[in-house]
Amino acid sequence: MNTLGKRIAELRRGKNITQDDIAEKLNVTAQAVSKWENDISCPDIMLLPKIAQMLSVTVDELLTDAPKKSVEFVPEEKRKNIDELMFRIYVNSKDGDKVKVNLPMPLVKMGLEMGVKMPAVSGNEALKGVDFAQLLTLVDQGLIGKLVEVESADGDIVEIVVE
Amino acid sequence: MRIQIKSKDEKNINLLLPTSLVLSNLTAVIAASAINKKIDKKDCEISSRDLCKLMAVMRKVKKKYGRFELVDIQSSDGDIVKIVL
Hints:
Shape of chain A: globular
Strand content of chain B: 15-25%
Number of helices of chain A: 8
Structural class of chain A: alpha+beta
Oligomer: heterodimer
Order of helices and strands of chain A: HHHHHEEEHHHEE
């Protein structure tokens, strides 16, 4: 399971922010941020809303391991470069198995160019009908968040989140 | 690259592989031939050239994100498999 520190580190890298930037804005030292990210210590509870705001997530999303729930349309001026986005595939099987695959967007694009089909990546048949090229088009047009949620007949739940 | 396999019953495996070796073009060529032997060509056919391009993208990802968790699998039995770039 991802810890708070790991989530902060992952989100920070995703947004191309340095530990120094966070430290400066929160009025703490860069060493303190490093300690949070390495799970040596935790940020003060009063700092959580500010951290969440800086990382463009809610405090809930920062504290829990759950994928981002909503689909969001990002206007063109606020849109990040598509190559900086992350493609996350979550598979929760009925038996309790959990699979989490994190794919940076350039890797997904490359895979599609090569003709790799996603069931080959995740091993889950529920992804067979998902048109990944179409998903990339949606992302290109500014849609991010949980783009796909599939519940198979076996009870497996597959989610695809772009963030 | 780190491949971590934690099994509830058996010994844990922790493989630390030099990223420059894993993501090299030579590895790509070897991997492409191994993959094409194992995978049905109807599903996917990977050429060594494509895999070399993929490795280049992976190297950029590694450079950008540093320690990056690609895969995290937790089975209901308590087994854990993690692949960290």
